[in-house]
């Protein structure tokens, strides 16, 4: 079969895929992130009700990631076996139920158990979505697909902060429960609803997408098959054990650990950091006001994250990851060294923008060096090992704050760890890019009808 397609037609296909898959997955990701970090949003009233210290609040994050890390790899392999709609939908139903039950926790010990269970339930979402994107988008399209999708993390902060603030203030009128309990109950029920929609509306892959025409399905599959063929030519790891034996996978796991080291500390303690600065300045904001202020860095980060790939579209993935991560590190240092509230917000805006932009570009690199079962296992290893930061960072931050009475030393530690991530990316990243699937093998490259840029009309033969 012979068909002539234009660059506009091809881009329309990718936009159609994104519009059909990203809203549901984005809603799941937003709820997953909010469910994960809402302990930080409600830390002040929750700790008062249950008599918990900052160290104990940090421990809830550590316990969450025990279950999360243990379940990530098997969960991603199960997704590959059963398909994204069933598996991701199941995880949403499970963690939505656990989050709703958390509303009725009556002690720190009950909360600890529920957070471990939540970690097991939520483990399949983030790595599963990252893997699922590779089922639809080849390398070139992933350059914008990952940033667009991961931008929902910033959206989580924008949506989650006012949602949580509103429920803290008025949730008792909706549920009859105190504010922080209403947060868990309502967000849990919303998660269950999205889980049902994912199970019934999400397509397993191009081959089952009824909303694509036959030529569109064939075009997508042809591009994905060509990329897989190139990876095989370059002897890219393809088996499960290959991923565990790959030094690059573990290097990327550490880089991801360093990249995300600041995310969880800020997510759990930013409202308290702002309250501490305000108290030192002689003001006393409410719990809801402190939560609302946390939306400012997330809003700025969302804009930067979406603009960055447009400006530097032709730069390498390593450049697009390392530069914002370096800027984010500088933002953390600024936040650590200032006692001025405005300067602190500016530092956190720079930190959030750098971290989230680097995160959106980071995942372009590891998937270039993995395929098949190794991709499922490798993404899960990187995600789970990197998410050790979710265990370590909040616990250290809480302990350092308890010992010193402030967050300065904790923020400086975060900046140091992030700088190690920059160094690791500079060492490992370029090597993977050189062997990655930048273009299909010569035998499978489509013949262009006209010369010029890649988005010019071309003729494809299948």
TrEMBL record:
Any single GO CC term annotated in Swiss-Prot or TrEMBL for this entry: plasma membrane
Keyword terms: Membrane, Transmembrane, Transmembrane helix, Transport
Main location: membrane
Residue ranges of the TM segments: 57-79, 86-105, 111-137, 144-163, 183-203, 249-270, 290-308, 317-336, 342-359, 366-386, 406-428
Top-level taxon of the source organism: Bacteria
Major facilitator superfamily (MFS) profile domain ranges (all copies): 21-433
Pfam family, one: MFS_1
Biased composition (Basic and acidic residues): 451-462
Keyword Transmembrane among record annotations: yes
Region (Disordered): 435-462
Gene Ontology molecular function: any one: transmembrane transporter activity
Membrane topology term: Multi-pass membrane protein
Protein localization: Cell membrane
Protein name, UniProt field: MFS family permease
Organism: Thermocatellispora tengchongensis
Source lineage: Bacteria, Bacillati, Actinomycetota, Actinomycetes, Streptosporangiales
């Amino acid at each position: 079969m012979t068909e002539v397609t234009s660059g506009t037609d091809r881009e329309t296909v990718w936009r159609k895929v994104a519009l059909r898959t990203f809203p549901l997955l984005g809603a799941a990701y937003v709820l997953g992130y909010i469910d994960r970090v809402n302990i930080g949003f409600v830390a002040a009233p929750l700790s008062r009700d249950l008599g918990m210290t900052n160290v104990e609040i940090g421990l809830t994050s550590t316990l969450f990631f025990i279950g999360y890390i243990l379940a990530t790899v098997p969960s991603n392999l199960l997704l590959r076996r059963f398909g994204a709609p069933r598996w991701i939908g199941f995880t949403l139903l499970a963690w939505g139920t656990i989050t709703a039950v958390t509303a009725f926790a009556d002690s720190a010990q009950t909360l600890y158990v529920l957070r471990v269970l939540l970690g097991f339930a939520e483990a399949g979402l983030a790595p599963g979505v990252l893997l699922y994107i590779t089922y639809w988008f080849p390398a070139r399209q992933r350059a914008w697909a990952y940033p667009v999708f991961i931008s929902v993390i910033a959206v989580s902060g924008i949506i989650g902060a006012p949602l949580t603030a509103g429920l803290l203030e008025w949730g008792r009128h909706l549920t009859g429960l105190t504010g922080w309990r209403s947060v868990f109950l309502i967000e849990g029920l919303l998660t269950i609803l999205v889980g049902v929609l994912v199970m019934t509306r999400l397509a397993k892959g191009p081959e089952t997408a009824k909303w694509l025409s036959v030529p569109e399905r064939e075009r997508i599959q042809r591009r994905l098959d060509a990329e897989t063929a190139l990876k095989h030519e370059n002897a890219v790891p393809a088996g499960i054990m290959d991923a565990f034996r790959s030094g690059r996978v573990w290097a990327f796991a550490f880089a991801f650990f360093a990249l995300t080291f600041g995310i969880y500390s800020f997510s759990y303690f930013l409202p308290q950091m702002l309250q501490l600065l305000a108290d030192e300045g002689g003001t006393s904001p409410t719990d809801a006001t402190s939560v609302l202020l946390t939306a400012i860095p997330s809003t700025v980060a969302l804009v930067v994250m979406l603009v960055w790939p447009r400006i530097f579209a032709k730069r390498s993935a390593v450049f697009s990851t390392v530069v914002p991560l370096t800027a984010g590190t500088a933002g953390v240092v600024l936040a650590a060294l200032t006692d001025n509230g405005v300067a602190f917000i500016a530092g956190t805006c720079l930190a959030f923008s750098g971290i989230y932009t680097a995160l959106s570009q980071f995942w372009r690199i590891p998937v270039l060096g993995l395929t098949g079962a190794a991709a499922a296992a490798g993404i899960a290893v990187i995600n789970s090992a990197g998410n050790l930061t979710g265990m370590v960072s909040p616990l250290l931050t809480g302990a350092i704050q308890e010992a010193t009475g402030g967050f300065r030393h904790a923020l400086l530690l975060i900046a140091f760890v992030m700088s190690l991530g920059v160094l690791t990316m500079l060492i490992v990243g370029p090597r993977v890019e050189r062997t990655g699937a930048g273009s299909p093998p010569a035998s499978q490259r489509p013949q262009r009808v006209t010369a010029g840029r890649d988005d010019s009309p071309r003729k494809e033969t299948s």
